[in-house]
Amino acid sequence: MNLGRHQERYCIIGNPVEHSLSPLIMNYLFHRYGLNAYYYKARVLENELGEAVQTLRGLRVKGFNVTMPHKKAILRYLSDLDDASYIIKAANTVKNVDGRLIGFNTDWVGVKRSLEFHGLNKIENAVIMGAGGAAAAALYALGQMSRGIIYIINRTYENAVGIKHEFRDLRAEIKPLLLSKENLREAIGDASLLINATPVGMGEWKSLVPPEFLKGEIYVMDMVYRPLKTKLLMDAEKAGATTIDGLWMLIIQAAEAFKIWTGIEPDILDLRRLVEANING
Ligand SMILES: NC(=O)c1ccc[n+]([C@@H]2O[C@H](COP(=O)([O-])OP(=O)(O)OC[C@H]3O[C@@H](n4cnc5c(N)ncnc54)[C@H](OP(=O)(O)O)[C@@H]3O)[C@@H](O)[C@H]2O)c1
């Protein structure tokens, strides 16, 4: 590790961060584009966030990523927010501009470009499962791509209603629903896109969606990327649907953060090869 005086510092803060793929991606990109910079990871507990931000300021880090559980809590420590992080009420990227910490949300870019990358530029009706930060990022993205109905299906109905109120200016109509088989069947039957924005399927062979609800004419995106092919995506593939795994979103949100910091737009397919080789090997 080169801690040279002129080396620029970046990092990710969160808990857990041990298995984060961000250091791999960012350090690869710094090397690839010949930048004298290094990206660290720092485990930060919930009650340590304020102190951690002070430390990062003191170290004059140029930028940092924020992951669970700090994406919402970080907002109060920032000098300014981009439109997306203001509306989504969560930031995952911070840029240090002469001591002013500016917050950005690049998760929504990860959703939008993942869909575009797979040929989906306009959407009629869509279903988002979940009503947390990742669902809010998906809703922000779909708000720019759909004028139809966006169903928010969630285990806690009140949280689905809450997200609808936060996004009341959207052109699309938001319909909050309680997570149930009946609601899933009806909403999926009416939609051309289904997004899983819950952790269900992460490290487990489970899916919220009965396989018989899936059909060939739908796009299915899972934000979970461990395993890369979740049960939901496997069932969708068997039904003939177009599937989009969570690694696309991860890579694209990271590429967007890199661009915010450096002005350089990385090659997404190059990053995909890098990360796939590392998670498989
Ligand atoms: N691929 C990527 O780049 C990327 C980026 C961001 C997030 N993600 C992933 O997206 C997922 C959600 O992240 P988040 O930040 O939105 O988390 P979050 O804010 O904690 O929200 C989690 C959501 O999932 C629901 N949920 C949790 N466990 C559930 C279960 N067993 N059954 C049904 N619903 C359940 C919660 O429902 P309640 O409201 O009832 O609690 C909530 O709506 C995580 O797996 C995360 O790793 C991936």
What does this protein structure show overall?
The chain has helices at residues 22-32, 49-58, 83-88, 107-117, 133-143, 157-166, 181-189, 231-238, 246-262, 268-280; strands spanning 8-14, 37-43, 63-66, 80-81, 93-97, 100-104, 126-129, 149-154, 173-178, 193-196, 219-222, 242-244. It is of the alpha/beta class. The longest helix is centred in the C-terminal third of the chain and has 17 residues, at 246-262. It is globular, with a radius of gyration of 19 Å. The chain starts with 7 loop residues before the first strand and ends with a helix. NADP nicotinamide-adenine-dinucleotide phosphate is lined by residues 68, 107, 110, 130-135, 154-156, 159, 179, 197-200, 202, 208, 223-225, 246, 249-250, 253. NADP nicotinamide-adenine-dinucleotide phosphate binds at residues 68, 107, 110, 130-135, 154-156, 159, 179, 197-200, 202, 208, 223-225, 246, 249-250, 253.
Net shape: globular
If you compute it from the alpha carbons, what radius of gyration comes out, rounded to the nearest whole angstrom? 19 Å
Distinct small molecules bound, one entry per kind: NADP nicotinamide-adenine-dinucleotide phosphate
Give me the count of strands.
Answer: 12
In DSSP terms, counting alpha (H) and pi (I) runs of 4 or more, how many helices? 10
Percentage of residues in strands: 15-25%
Distance between the termini: 23 Å
Structural category is alpha/beta
Keywords:
281 residues, alpha/beta, six-stranded mixed β-sheet, six-stranded parallel β-sheet, 12 strands, globular, binds NADP nicotinamide-adenine-dinucleotide phosphate
